[in-house]
Design brief:
Elements: E1 10-15, H1 19-29, E2 34-39, H2 49-56, E3 61-62, H3 66-70, E4 75-78, H4 85-92, E5 101-104, H5 110-122, E6 126-132, H6 136-139, E7 145-148, H7 152-162, E8 167-171, H8 176-205, H9 208-218, H10 224-255, H11 261-274, H12 285-293, H13 300-307
Parallel strand pairs: 1-2, 1-4, 2-3, 4-5, 5-6, 7-8
Antiparallel strand pairs: 6-7
Helix pairs in contact: 4-5, 8-9, 8-10, 8-11, 8-12, 10-11
């Protein structure tokens, strides 16, 4: 007889207690009959964000190993970084309860997704692809999530009961939701990289106001200054994670038979942005740009031109 999750306790193994993992842990805690046991490899690192979260989220049981978090869980949710997706699947597989659902929220290429699914299905798990199609913060667990794979339709009612109000089945095949997510990332993370490069250059030349005004003429999205600051700040705050995601976008483009020139460049700019995270302390766009530029000496000829 199938267990009713609405009347019996549901144990969820949560892999990853970073930004997304913490949002999920808090929101799942509000669902009656749900127990969350989390594991993050950074629990062992003193001062790390996951370790601090494990101490502050007293309703989450912090596991001492991946196996402890996964074993006995009817649902496992993986919310690590893109570069850790396959490693997490490989480590979780031996401890996975037969028939357990494995919801993979990581932003990876269709091939990476297929390989992770194969690892977990071979271990007796039921793999569900999940592509988060917006930033997690505004709607939290209710963010739009596209599900994929042969178990997605069966999982959907349970997902909605858990609070994934924005979940929908995108495809019965593994990889299609991920392809859509990665193509979106080429644009969104690419725009972040382009805005940073363009406006840092414009600010150094003293023409940033003209550039922003011209963008408003072409793309009337409202306050371009606020939008630019927001998008650049995302790279500053999450650049390392975004660089990993864009490496998966590189794979996605290459898997389609194209040379991923733009995606490769976005990897470099996102990684570079992460090294300037202290600029987040500046609230105005120009102050943020100046903070970043202060670490990059201007070429001599530009300095001489400014003196004239």
């Amino acid at each position: 007889m199938e267990r009713s999750v609405t009347t019996n306790p549901c144990r969820i193994g949560l892999i990853g207690l970073g930004e997304v993992g913490q949002v999920l842990a808090n929101d799942l805690h509000r669902v009656g009959g749900v127990e969350v046991c989390a594991w993050d490899r950074l629990f062992a690192v003193e001062g790390s964000e996951p370790r601090r979260a494990a101490r502050s989220l007293t309703f989450v049981r912090a596991a001492s190993s991946m196996a402890e978090a996964v074993s006995g869980s009817s649902i496992v949710i993986c919310a690590v970084t893109a570069g850790e997706c396959q490693a997490a699947a490989g480590e979780a597989a031996p401890a996975l309860t037969h028939g357990a659902l494995y919801l993979d929220l990581n932003s990876v290429s269709p091939r990476t997704r297929t390989e992770a699914a194969g690892t977990l299905e071979a271990a007796g798990g039921r793999y569900v692809e999940a592509a988060v199609m917006s930033p997690i913060a505004p709607k939290r667990i209710a963010s739009p999530v596209w599900l994929g794979g042969p178990h997605a339709r069966a999982f959907l009612p349970l997902a909605q009961w858990l609070g994934f109000a924005g979940a929908k089945v995108y495809s019965d095949a593994i990889g299609e939701a991920s392809a859509a997510k990665m193509c979106r990332s080429v644009i969104i993370k690419g725009m972040e990289a382009l805005l940073a490069e363009s406006l840092l250059t414009a600010r150094r030349h003293g023409v940033e106001d003209a550039v922003l005004a011209s963008l408003q003429d072409l793309f009337p999205v409202g306050d371009w200054r606020a939008l630019a600051r927001y998008m650049i700040s995302r790279s500053l705050q999450h650049g390392r994670r975004r660089a990993e995601e864009m490496r998966e976008a590189v794979k996605t483009v290459a898997e389609a038979g194209f040379e991923p020139w733009m995606s490769r460049a976005s990897v470099e700019r996102q990684q570079w942005a992460a090294e300037h995270a202290e600029a987040l302390s500046q609230q105005a766009l120009t102050d943020m740009l100046d903070h970043m530029l202060a670490r990059m000496p201007a070429p001599a000829r530009l300095t001489e031109a400014a003196r004239r």
